[in-house]
Design goal:
Heme Oxygenase, Chain A; 22 helices; 637 residues; Peroxisomal Thiolase, Chain A, domain 1; 15 strands; alpha+beta; two-stranded antiparallel ribbon; 45% helix; nine-stranded mixed β-sheet
Length: 637
């Protein structure tokens, strides 16, 4: 028998910004540029991020004026004041932050102490931007399950203490770009939400209550390397606790906050894929969203998010977007709570209006989503059987095709492309967790590893044009146009293996005779499967294989190439094959889409889509096997 769950409502929201607003011209008094490179970075970043002012919890001499716990406590006081509530009503406090004032105890406990609050349950969520979503979720679930009637979620950040001039000067002004970058992006502040299981009117809005319909919080940390971190050296080989003293850790840069901006495009890519999955599974209707609060760190990313949403056919009109980034700055985990609290201040909501919040976190890639809906305060609020705060745990993040987008394709192809996208997203995630890619991500990938990979890969690439031509020759007369198209594609790729072999030789490869190279077990299995399929009459399922193989060149290779280059002191000319496929496979995939349209036009019996999907699934499994075997000794004759 299902257990009834309490509905969760936002009773009030508050925030605290320390000190007076600091303009771009006034920033130098707090975190002044320390060398010419820093000054150039400052001008560039401020020109792009759209932030005009922010707040700092330190003074111009770098002294702390407000601790992080004090800021969080002040945000809670503001929240309670706006809701005309007392702290004695609260039985749970959940905090979210990238770090409090002390390494231990938990940040929530320090905030409770700062408030001199009565005994209550506490939970401290440590992370980056989406830590706030984790805190809200913990508080909401406590209410939902009946353990608490009222709970507080708070998020507070104070990066100014690690950005001030004195900390950077300690390293002799020798700081890398990734360490400089965030000084001009982040600032201090705190936000708090009071959640309740009752039927409260939203603070200051008689007759309207704001229901938290659901939260969805998903991490992709198993798929991607660290993007934003504090506590590791620049090369991530040592943590700050690994040094003999804090001074040595500081001097080595292990206490500098860094962000690898080269990885950021992937953050929005996976986040919008996940958003599309929520829409597909019925958790969100973009047309019903009245207000979109998106935590982007820079206005530069507005067209990125908007463009990905439009590509997915799931855009929210820009006039419904709202942000306070320009005048509150980027306050990390606190941003979404500060944004929501300020948005609600003095605003009248009508029953049925929806507020959708999106929080991408760059730490190691996490995405958080919240949906609120305004209701009449007199509406039925009895217990419900379906959990109010639970997005589907297994919601796939692949409703838009990777690399092809169903919404941008003809309607008759959308179901096929959606199913292929599901296969792709699982395949991509598994590839990123293979030993080979982990070596690359963790900067353990050396020249011998690169040579070993190519020794495995060259004979597999060599077979590509062969099974394509065999498949084209097996097509009957109705598929003449398709055979011609595949022939063009095979012709373009028939000598690609020679480019790869030349790269291998220039990189120091010792094998002079290409015929002595052998595919590893995964490559051998993939080769046998595709040649066997190509020999059958009308092997249109091969289009599923091409989708995976060319997609690997368009999506995975370009993501790996910068990491490979960064870790290998080799000439650019040894990466020609990887460069070529990263630039050209998108054109190949457009040709693939045209081929699929030809097949679907001729598919009278309706089995073509299933054959393409089945082949794509099998190819993904075998190609993954090829990746998994690369780190083993290379096969030779």
């Amino acid at each position: 028998m299902p257990v009834p769950f309490q509905r969760v409502y936002l009773e009030s929201a508050g925030f605290f910004m320390p000190g007076e607003p600091v303009s771009n011209d006034e920033m130098d008094a707090y975190i002044a540029p320390i060398n010419r490179m820093s000054e150039r970075i400052k001008r560039r970043i401020l020109a792009e991020n759209g932030i005009r002012q922010r707040h700092y919890g330190i003074d111009a001499e770098g002294r702390t004026v407000h601790s992080n716990a004090q800021m969080a406590a002040n945000a809670i006081r503001h929240c309670l004041q706006r809701g005309a509530a007392e702290i004695s009503r609260v039985s749970m406090l959940a905090s979210g932050s990238s770090g409090g004032d002390a390494v231990m105890p938990g940040f929530a406990n320090m905030i409770q102490g700062e408030l001199a609050a009565p005994p209550m349950e506490t939970i401290s969520v440590q992370g980056v931007c989406a830590a706030s979503v984790g805190a809200i979720q913990a508080a909401a679930q406590g209410i939902e399950l009946g353990a608490h009637r009222t709970a507080l979620a708070v998020a507070s950040e104070m990066p100014s203490r690690i950005f001030k001039r004195s900390r950077f000067a300690a390293r002799g002004y020798d700081c890398d770009f990734d360490a400089h970058f965030l000084r001009w992006m982040l600032s201090d502040g705190a936000g708090a939400l009071l959640l309740s299981g009752g039927t409260p009117a939203l603070g200051g809005q008689a007759g309207v209550r704001l229901r938290l319909k659901w939260i969805h919080h998903r991490s992709f940390s198993g798929d991607y390397p660290v993007c934003m971190q504090l506590g590791l050296t620049e090369d991530r080989s040592r943590g700050h606790f690994d040094f003999d003293s804090w001074g040595e850790a500081e001097a080595a840069g292990a206490l500098s906050l860094r962000q690898d901006i080269r990885l950021l495009p992937h953050l929005f890519d996976v986040g919008i894929h996940e958003y599309a999955g929520l829409v597909r599974d019925g958790w969100l209707d973009p047309a019903r969203v009245d207000h979109f609060l998106c935590h982007y760190s820079s206005e530069k990313f507005i067209p990125v998010v908007d463009g990905l949403m439009q590509k997915a056919g799931l855009a929210i009109p820009r006039e419904r977007w709202w942000s306070n980034l320009a005048w509150r700055g980027n306050t990390g985990a606190a941003s979404i709570m500060i944004m929501l609290a300020e948005f609600l201040q003095g605003r009248s909501l009508k029953p049925g209006e929806q507020i959708f919040c999106y929080v991408p976190e760059s730490g190691r890639f996490t995405a958080g989503y919240l949906l609120f809906e305004a209701e009449e305060s007199g509406a039925d609020a009895s217990a419900v059987v379906v959990p109010a705060v639970s997005a589907p745990l297994e919601a796939e993040a692949d409703a838009i095709a990777a690399p092809h987008d169903p919404a941008a394709a003809p309607e008759r192809l959308q179901a096929l492309l959606t199913e292929l996208a599901s296969i792709w997203h699982d395949y991509r995630s598994r590839v990123w967790r293979t030993p080979l890619v982990r070596q690359i991500r963790e900067r353990r990938f050396k020249a011998p590893d690169y040579l070993n990979w190519m020794e495995n890969w060259i004979p597999q690439v060599r077979e590509g044009s062969k099974w394509m031509r065999e498949g084209a020759a097996s097509l009957a007369a109705p598929y003449e146009a398709l055979a011609a198209l595949i022939g063009v594609h095979a012709g373009e790729e028939q000598n690609d293996f020679m480019i790869l072999f030349d790269d291998y030789r220039k990189a120091g490869g010792s094998v002079a005779d290409i015929d002595t190279l052998r595919r590893n077990p995964g490559g051998e299995a993939l080769n046998a499967y595709l040649h066997g399929l190509a020999a059958r009459p009308n092997p249109i399922g091969l289009l599923g294989a091409i989708y995976i193989i060319e997609g690997t060149g368009q999506r995975i290779v370009p993501a790996l190439l910068p990491l490979i280059k960064a870790g290998l002191p080799l000439s650019p000319e040894v990466f020609r094959f990887l460069e070529y496929h990263g630039h050209n496979d998108e054109n190949h995939l457009e040709r693939w889409l045209a081929a699929v349209e030809m097949v679907m036009d001729l598919d009278d019996e309706g089995g073509a889509a299933r054959r393409i999907v089945d082949t794509a699934r099998n190819t993904a499994a075998l190609y993954l096997m090829q990746f998994e075997h690369v780190t083993r000794p290379p096969g030779r004759a």
